[in-house]
Amino acid sequence: MPVSPLATPFPALPTLPGVRIGTATAGYKPWTRADVTAIAFPPGTSVAGVTTRSACPSPEVETCRANLASGQARALLVNAGNSNAFTGAAGAAASAAQVAALATLLDCDPAHIFPASTGVIGVPLPRDKAIAGVQAAHAALGTASWLDATHAIGTTDTFPKAAMTQAIVGGQTVTLVGFIKGSGMIAPDMATMLGFIVTDAALHPTALQAALTQATATTFNCITVDSDTSTSDTILAFATGSPLPFTGGATRAASGGGETTGGGEMSGGGEVAAIEPPPAFQAALTDLCRQLAQLVVRDGEGATKFIEIRVTGATTDASARTIALSIANSPLVKTAIAGEDANWGRIVMAVGKAGEPADRDRLSISFGGTTVAQHGTVVPGYDEAPVAAHLKGQDIDIAVDLGLGEGRATVWTCDLTHGYVSINADYRS
Amino acid sequence: MPVSPLATPFPALPTLPGVRIGTATAGYKPWTRADVTAIAFPPGTSVAGVTTRSACPSPEVETCRANLASGQARALLVNAGNSNAFTGAAGAAASAAQVAALATLLDCDPAHIFPASTGVIGVPLPRDKAIAGVQAAHAALGTASWLDATHAIGTTDTFPKAAMTQAIVGGQTVTLVGFIKGSGMIAPDMATMLGFIVTDAALHPTALQAALTQATATTFNCITVDSDTSTSDTILAFATGSPLPFTGGATRAASGGGETTGGGEMSGGGEVAAIEPPPAFQAALTDLCRQLAQLVVRDGEGATKFIEIRVTGATTDASARTIALSIANSPLVKTAIAGEDANWGRIVMAVGKAGEPADRDRLSISFGGTTVAQHGTVVPGYDEAPVAAHLKGQDIDIAVDLGLGEGRATVWTCDLTHGYVSINADYRS
Known about the structure:
The structure is a homodimer.
Chain A: E1 20-24, E2 36-51, H1 59-67, E3 72-82, H2 88-106, E4 113-120, H3 127-139, H4 146-153, E5 161-169, E6 172-181, E7 194-199, H5 205-218, E8 223-224, E9 234-239, E10 265-266, E11 272-273, H6 279-298, E12 306-314, H7 317-328, H8 331-338, H9 344-353, E13 364-367, E14 370-374, E15 377-378, H10 385-391, E16 395-401, E17 407-414, H11 418-425
Parallel strand pairs in A: 3-4, 7-9, 8-17, 12-16
Antiparallel strand pairs in A: 1-2, 2-3, 2-9, 5-6, 6-7, 10-11, 12-17, 13-14, 13-16, 14-15
Pfam families (chains A, B): ArgJ
Site (Cleavage) (chains A, B): 191-192
Family (chains A, B): Belongs to the ArgJ family.
């Protein structure tokens, strides 16, 4: 599979104290690449997570949900090439055995290990390969890089996707590293979205969960490649509580974040942490999640255009998001962008079908900053030339104002091309 | 555009007394084919209709909605090549002028004329062409056939689509003729769905509306090509109240329908008609609507497979329909079928994402009558051979049982192919 034309370079990522990465080859498919990843965290690491809303989740998703209750993590364990979803008792038992094997090696509670698997649905995780794989990954702890891990969790991803950011929290610079795989907001046989964030910030699990939940709402939950939601989607955030020394690199203003750390509880790392996430950390985490989410869209199956859709003037933010996703998921809008066609009639259609308050005669639509339609019809003297020029680029901006209220949302998607059909019409066979 | 591989022959259709068809060329596009259709009905014809739920409907849709209040129709007027949607005051005025011109020629109330337009969004109906076109179509009344009308209302349709049925109502045989255009449940620039049904049955408008609404729920509202809902979707049913003599052709048992005609009001045709539709008429109308709806799927853009999805065991019928449409609209399911891939994992995914009650461990899935998965995993000793053979055919059956309750629904769709992308990535330009 050729690299996405929307790919970006893999960033330079720092090591984080106490975080050890190991990868190994279990051989879930007939390949020699690494397909098992273990990342060990220091004792007292906080964890937060969001998982698929699918009614048919994988056993790994169910394990993560259960293990999030303690808020404590000692390791992440990822398998690529087999999602273990819809595999009944056999799949659940194999995953549990793999988790238990790693817990024995790390001498920790199995409830502090967070498993995730991605790949084909319906084939139980092969127990022997999984255990041998995790043992080899454990033996390799400390030898692998973030890039190695990003490659090892990938399936049909065409480029490795990661990001970092920093923030000043309570006068200390904290670093956030994230890496992600997925080539569709979901393509469940192969491209379920798994994303992992590690920070040296000291945060109570409750604060970390609140920050991740808030960040997800405007980032991971605002991207779509094909409207299909995975059985395995998982985002996990780990906070090791060991801030790095200030590096002088790109940082984020504290925005008063330091004022909110009083009265918190101890997290394992020995730093004082609040139940509420510091605003500076929240901003940095949201920024990181947005970068990761956008990278997934940039590796969307068959994508040739990166599309940002901003909806304003809706009755509520939720209504704006529904309308934005109606546009983003419309096969007709997506094929029009693929064809570089300023087909704003299809935007009208997608607004109209969203089932949310809209008034045809107050609607306005613009491409790349050029208004094409308003007051229920095309603008007088509409000149398509600047719009056509915008559509020939790789980054497409669509703005819709409903003229009804203050609700707004921004979502990101990609176009629908022959590449998507080629990839998905013969993946499994 | 080549004829759909799923095309069926145009049926033999009877003329109906008092119903006169005329077609003409307005020239909405640079073509010589007929693109204006007028059908005149005898005084006292009842009418019923269902229209798009889009929040951005065309002025023709708004006119139909307003005119349905009287329940009386004297003519249908259809333009093809221009949907007149999102064209502001200019488009609405042009449509009103065209309706007024036909009303003058027929010497009737303009509120008894039902306009519909299909084609590109955003270009106001050209008033002069529209008026000249409808005048020519009026002059041609009585000279055109159902086939002529079906061709004249089409846009990117690859074959003309019509159906007929008969029923015995109150001891009389009544005939129902329907014709339809559309190549997507919606592709709004070109393939909005317009369907028209004419019957010589004598029915009060309220009864006709009740029958059409009920029929639509399990037919037109249970098909999807691409999940995109048009700004112009319109189904109109006209009952002229002049039963044909019994023909000895295919008829439908009355099922007690005759018993329900007592106490009705007079409809214009002079027959006694009930407020409630006779059961035999209801059954015939539903059958006709199902035929027409399935024909639209068979002409779905790029379609190579006709797919029936039956969901049973849901908590309610509405829940079953939502789940069935989640499967039918999933790009991953549709591309899998295009690739003849028995990818039942994608069915699991689509059930899981539907947002309706489902239990992974009670779900069962079958293709072409062969159960492939149940109790949360693949069936023991699963043999893919019969499923693979079924998927090589043109008519694909997918059955999903949720094991939760008595709710059920059946929907129809087609596969997602390179043809769909080709058609839609460069339609307008």
